């Protein structure tokens, strides 16, 4: 087992996933409490396959499934003081995911993601808009010129590397947390991840 596997949790998030949104703060709290670094990666889930295609293509079963999903997420969001409104389309998260990687590189990840996600889940942010993505980066203290340079040179490469890492680790959905090769899918599995991290601390203490 490598030192990296012992010291890092790979965290894969989909900006369009309400369950990702709900898991972020608990996961960040766990990272702080455990002292283990979380390496954040974008992951683009195949929602079309999971939920029956585009809105107009869904069966009554798929519609009922999604209605329950958002009802469940709203109940969970209330516990954290968050707002989640159901989305009106299947968003393309490619550009926003590239921006996430750029903000992460510049150490402004949460300054970028937190306001963006709060606005997105209030239906006040267009996840596919280059202008709105750039404005969110500027609001996070980042330079538009550097963002454009990153898009031209690094964005596609870094996104491909994130996807390849997810595939290599067996990630199939978001949020997923990977520690020592073990997958923890969903925010409701953070307690199991916490146990794994606690076991590590106990071993180091002996």
List the helices and strands and how they pair.
Elements: H1 3-7, E1 8-13, H2 18-34, E2 37-42, H3 47-50, H4 60-80, H5 94-105, H6 109-120, H7 130-139, H8 144-153, H9 155-169, E3 176-179, E4 182-185, H10 190-205
Parallel strand pairs: 1-2
Antiparallel strand pairs: 1-3, 3-4
Helix pairs in contact: 2-10, 5-6, 5-7, 5-9, 6-7
Description:
The structure is a single chain. This protein is an alpha+beta fold. The protein has one domain (3-49, 92-205): Glutaredoxin (3-Layer(aba) Sandwich). Helices cover 59% and strands 10% of the residues. The protein has helices spanning 3-7, 18-34, 47-50, 60-80, 94-105, 109-120, 130-139, 144-153, 155-169, 190-205; strands spanning 8-13, 37-42, 176-179, 182-185. Strands 2-1-3-4 form a 4-stranded mixed β-sheet, with helices on both faces. Strand 3 (176-179) and strand 4 form a beta hairpin. Helix 2 (18-34) packs parallel to helix 10, helix 5 (94-105) runs parallel beside helix 7 and helix 6 (109-120) packs across helix 7. It is globular.
Short synopsis of the structure:
With 206 residues, the chain is α+β, with helices and mostly antiparallel strands. The protein has helices at 3-7, 18-34, 47-50, 60-80, 94-105, 109-120, 130-139, 144-153, 155-169, 190-205; strands spanning 8-13, 37-42, 176-179, 182-185. The protein has a single domain (3-49, 92-205), classed as Glutaredoxin.
Give the N-terminus to C-terminus distance in angstroms. 18 Å
**Briefly, what CATH class?**
Alpha Beta
Main pleated sheet: 4 strands, mixed
Shape: globular
Could you please say which CATH topology applies here? Answer: Glutaredoxin
**What class would the helix/strand composition place it in?**
alpha+beta
Number of extended strands = 4
